[in-house]
Each structure stands twice: as C-alpha cells, then as structure tokens.
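User: Okay, second chain of the day. Same drill as before: sequence in, structure tokens out.
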Amino acid sequence: MGRRWLVTGCSSGLGRALAEAAAREGHEVAVTARDTAALDDLAAAWPGRIVPLPLELRDAAQCEETVRTAADRLGGVDVLVNNAGAGLFGAIEEVSDAELRDQLETLVVGPWRLVRLVLPLMRAQGRGHIVNVSSLAGRMAFPGLGAYVAGKYALEGMSQALAAEVAGQGVRVTVVEPGGFATRYGTSLAESGRRLPEYAGVTAETLDAVRGMAGDPATGRPQDYAARILAIVAAEAPTPLRIPVGDDAYTYLETAEQAAREELAAARALVGGLSSPVTPLPRGPAEIRPQEIAGPSAV
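Assistant: Same drill. Structure tokens below.
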C-alpha cells in the first residue's frame, strides 16, 4: 500500500534521491524546494506521484501553506521527512548571532514547526511516521562546524522527547544519521563572515574533508541512502529511535561511543563515583521521566 510522503529539501542530494525512490515504489510524494523550478523534471518524470511545492523553512506562513496543500493534494500525510538543511562553517568565536540564528532556524525551528503542523493530521488518521534527518554531527562534534553541530544535537534532543510524547498516538519517530554521501553539502557550505587566523590550523582539516567529500569515490551514493530510508519506513514498529545510515556512520559513531564511555569513567573517577547504588531502569532513554533520575524537583 502506497504511503503519502512530505519530503523537504528535494532540489538535489539525499532529498531528491529519496523522492525518486519513493515515487518509483508507488508512493505519492509532496516535494519541496525554495525554487520549485528545480523540481520540474521530477514532476514530469512522475506525473501524479510527485507534487512540487515551494518552501522556505524560515517562513512560518509558507510552512503552514505547504503542509495544508500537501494534505489536500495527497489526501493526508503518512510520512514527514525533515530533510532540508544547510551548513555553516566557522569556529564558535567567528560565528555571529545572526548567523547562528539563521542556522538554528533552518536546522531546528523549521523542522519543529513542520512536526507541529503534521501531528494533528497524523493523530486524526491514527498513524504517521516522522523522520528527522540528522547527521553524525548530531552525536559528535567537528571543529569549525559548531553551529551545525548545535542544530543537529538540538534536533536529536527534540526527536527523543517527541518519541516519548507521541508513543501512544500511533506516530513513530525516527532520527536518521547519514554518514558521508555524495551531495552538494560540502560545496554549498557557507562560511562565517568573520575568520580569525587563530583557528585556521584547527578547522582547516574539517573544511577540506567536507569540501572534498562528494568527489571521493568511497563516499556513499544518495540512491543507497534512499533505499535504506524506504526500508526503515516500511519496517514494522518498534524500530530504533536513532539509525545511522552508511557503513562509515557506524565506524565513526562506535568510536564516539567508546570515547563517551571513557569520558564517563574519567568523570566518575574525578568526582569519586556515585554515593549510593542505582537500580538500572528497564527502559530506553526516551521513556525515562526526569523525576526518576533526579527526583521530583527535576526539570
């Protein structure tokens, strides 16, 4: 049975590959871009299955119109994929308030807004799947990508809270964490207006790696990514909240998880460990209430 998808950021890269793959499998897909001219060939290739819609994530009114139009044209929304995004390169000291706000509007506020708009539709139909596209940067930091990392960490935190909130409403939440894929992310990465020589040696390696990612033959193909997202959506619930996509993603995140365990052990050694034993809670992090960890006064 075909699903009705709303996928943001489909002018190129991962969003475009996913839209094509979903249409090929018989799904109906509302696809968005700031300029819908970039979507004309998709609509022509898949008439009746691809519905192009304009969307600027930072425009609240246009977000409302896009969700309303997608629901009207498709008869509902079964899957929301928050894929649209943009990166900003700059050390923490180099990034201005305005640049930071713009990055967070795109990576956090816009997706949050779309989630808020589709949830009543999904709740009314008794089912839905929200897929928030994060990154390795949602679980590990890279020098020079502080604003991007902050946005992806926030998106993952929001998603974890959301999963607990909608667990009884028939709505599934998935965070996908792509590794390296051959897209225009690296070449379109914006740079902060202020650049300080003190950080050039620290951040240059990150910038070179990101800029050259699309040309590296070892980098993943967007079509492979799309196939894996389709499999995730088609899988029977329950599924993991966070799903890395790409072999390199698992390698990087396993290393990050080991570093986190070592950091936790070092922290415990520094402060003297726990004052009393704690009984492990038999649930996942998204299901644990704050007061069960820190008492009734926890926020």
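Strands lie at 4-7, 28-33, 50-54, 79-82, 88-89, 128-133, 171-178, 190-191, 242-245.

User: Thanks, on to the next one.
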